Amino acid sequence: MIDLFPLVAQAGPNALPYFDPVLPDRELVLYSARPTVWHPGLPVLFVHHGVGRNGQDYRDYWLPHADANGMLVIAIEFPQAGFPEYLCYNFGNLHAIDGTPNPRKLWTFGIGPRLFDTLRGQGVTSTERYGLFGHSAGGQYVHRMLSFGYRDRVAVAVSANAGTYAMPDMSIDWPWGLGATDVTTDDLRRLLGFPLTLMAGTEDTKTSGRFFPKGVKSMKQGPTRYARAHTYLRTAQDAAAALHVPLQWRVIDVPGVGHDGRRMSDAAAPVIIPLLRARVMEPPSAVTPDI
Asked: Cys-Cys with 179: which of 167, 173, 183, 234 at CB 3.0–4.6 Å?
């Protein structure tokens, strides 16, 4: 088992190669930001990078917030070598490249929850739950991860500037919806009851970049990333109304910001930090209502 205490060896930035126990042949890298004054009871936030696979940059975006607010931030980097393209990262490794379904135990959505359990097991943290922030491809990863139930220990989650969404609609097939998966109607009810925050830069409207999803099914979600975040919320509102359950999701528009990981991180910090600090000590039922 990998010793995770190097992540808190010194104040400021730390880094550590990491191998998930279920996927031991694929190297990840953990980039941590430890506050000057640290103890295991402080909140933990996992950060998910975009398509650039630049975990170090995203850790650095959160360095000042970690120190100023007394929390441990860990950016989990998924290198292309072990987690190629969107199938293994954005889409969680649900399917092989030929479309063959992978068993759930191989889904990469389980990496963060297992990492948190190991942090707890080694005494790096004594908290009961953690926070999630993902931007761009990381925003895709975060909301899809939550959609498949990987949220037992998640206190607060923010998906920012995602390029496409798995709409909470069983009539739309994966990965643009939750159809053709093992998600049930009861699962969907529980997902809609989870407090998910979407963040959308009002200037995230450029469509000329090579990483902007332009396929027919992606364009049905909206002409821009900004529009697609609002489509995702509207779809959830419709689903919640049809299922007669309260919806706990929201969209926060970030004025004047485009597809910018640093600025979206800065905008997310005052949203995440107070909720994370308040919820890490709450019982599970107070955070993830079972509807």
From this structure: 173
- Topology (CATH level 3) of domain 5-287: Rossmann fold (3.40.50)
- 286: which 2 tokens? 């107070």
Buried b (16+ CB within 10 A) or exposed e, 36-57: eebeeebbbbbbbbbbebbbeb
Predicted TM-score (pTM) above 0.85: yes
In the numeric block, which tokens belong to residue 171?
């009539």
Category of 113 on φ-ψ map: left (φ > 0), alpha (ψ -120 to 50) or beta: alpha
Greatest alpha-carbon span in the chain: 51
What pLDDT digit, counting tens, does each position of 150-181 carry?
999 999 999 999 999 999 999 999 999 999 99
Find out whether 87 and 95 touch, Cβ atoms under 8 Å.
yes
